[in-house]
Design goal:
Helix content: 40-55%
Radius of gyration: 17 Å
Structural class: mainly alpha
Oligomer: single chain
Mean pLDDT: 85
Number of helices: 3
């Protein structure tokens, strides 16, 4: 039996519209129950994550460092 690693990419924030994590696409219940899931259940969840990630809104919830620096460069120049 091969273990399935977590799809977590350390972008842990839930899209309030869909209920899916912006990073991995799992729900809160799936995230909290991941360790206790059977390999079969994990495979089922993994199979639907790409479609879920297409539905989350990809806008950052706060200004990123890159966006702030670009904005500041534009204001200065």
């Amino acid at each position: 039996m091969t273990a399935i690693e977590s799809p977590c990419i350390l972008v842990c924030s839930i899209d309030l519209k869909t209920g899916y994590c912006f990073g991995c696409g799992r729900t809160r219940d799936e995230i909290s129950g991941w360790i206790g899931m059977t390999p079969e259940k994990r495979r089922e969840v993994m199979a639907i994550l790409p479609a879920r990630l297409e539905t989350v809104e990809r806008r950052p919830r706060r200004e990123t460092r890159r966006t702030r620096m670009a904005r500041e460069r534009g204001a200065v120049g």
